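Lecture notes, continued. The same structure-token format from the folding unit now serves as the input rather than the output. Read the line below as a description of shape only.
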């Protein structure tokens, strides 16, 4: 699907357009994007884009959309579907053209449009992983699966797999079971919940309070979790410090026990480390009053990206721990 965004406001940064969100949405419906162009509003360029064959997704500012459609109705035809009087999709012999408003809730409208593209004989699924590169995931799927259409999208060791395949409506879906088995150690979700939201849900379901201490990530983990309003219900205490002491597993372990004890929390997460010329070496401690486990990690990347990766890694280990049944209180 070819994507065209015609807006001076987007080019100037006055309207934010989340291309990553759109790319993931297309992948979910097995509609990989062929290209995306950002152009100022120009009637001649719009006409040229509308004349092209194939499926197209055109974004315009809402106030300009009606005029563009009326002016080019001879190119669009009369076979159309209107979505909540805001978006519209035209079907043609050589493809479809969908118009969505940039400055309104285009994601909600896009879901309604894409739902119509789903094929009755196809099944759709998604898997969210941590700790694999997109190349590793693609190579595994290529070698271990067949008759599977998939898209693999990722960033900072967080990888999303969107798959579509022909399948029967059985109680147990062998294809999904197989994909989940291939990435058993890296899988954290088969729905749209993020790592931070899953961690908070698990803490709430288990009635646990968590203490978090960040010595190297500058409050990134606390910031991510705070995006969910429910976080205040599970947070016992959070702190951001900078520790100049040598990084050892023993010190990180004892530090986590100290935070756990002094905060009277049920669960503890601490992260400490140091930057060097290659990236970040860090240790993550997660546990309860019965046991604390220390994970040694290294992220060779520039500072900001390394912090994002380390924060995601800490949340992944927390989710994995909370998903187990060995927490006893």
């Amino acid at each position: 699907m070819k994507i065209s965004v015609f807006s001076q406001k987007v080019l100037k940064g006055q309207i934010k357009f989340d291309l990553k969100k759109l790319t993931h949405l297309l992948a979910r419906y097995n509609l990989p994007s062929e290209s995306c162009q950002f152009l100022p509003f120009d009637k001649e360029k719009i006409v040229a884009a509308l004349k092209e064959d194939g499926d197209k997704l055109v974004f315009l500012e809402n106030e300009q959309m009606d005029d563009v459609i009326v002016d080019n109705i001879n190119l669009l035809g009369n076979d159309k579907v209107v979505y909540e009087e805001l978006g519209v999709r035209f079907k043609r012999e050589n493809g479809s053209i969908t118009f969505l408003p940039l400055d309104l809730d285009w994601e909600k409208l896009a879901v309604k449009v894409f739902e119509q593209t789903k094929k009755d004989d196809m099944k759709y699924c998604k898997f969210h992983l941590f700790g694999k590169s997109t190349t590793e995931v693609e190579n595994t799927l290529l070698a271990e699966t067949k008759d599977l259409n998939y898209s693999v999208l990722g960033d900072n060791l967080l990888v999303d797999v969107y798959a579509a395949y022909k399948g029967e409506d059985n109680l147990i879906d062998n294809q999904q079971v197989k994909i989940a088995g291939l990435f058993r150690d890296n899988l954290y979700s088969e729905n749209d919940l993020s790592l931070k939201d899953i961690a908070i849900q698990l803490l709430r379901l288990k009635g646990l309070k968590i203490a978090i201490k960040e010595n190297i990530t500058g409050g990134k983990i606390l910031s991510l979790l705070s995006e969910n309003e429910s976080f205040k219900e599970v947070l016992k205490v959070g702190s951001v410090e900078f520790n100049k002491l040598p990084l050892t597993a023993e010190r990180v372990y004892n530090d986590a026990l100290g935070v756990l004890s002094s905060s009277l929390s049920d669960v503890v997460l601490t992260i400490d480390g140091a930057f060097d010329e290659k990236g970040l070496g860090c240790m993550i401690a997660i546990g309860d009053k019965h046991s604390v486990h220390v994970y040694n990690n290294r992220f060779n990347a520039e500072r900001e990206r390394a912090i994002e990766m380390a924060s995601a890694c800490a949340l992944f280990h927390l989710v994995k721990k909370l998903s187990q049944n060995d927490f006893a209180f």
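Point for the exam: The radius of gyration is 24 Å.
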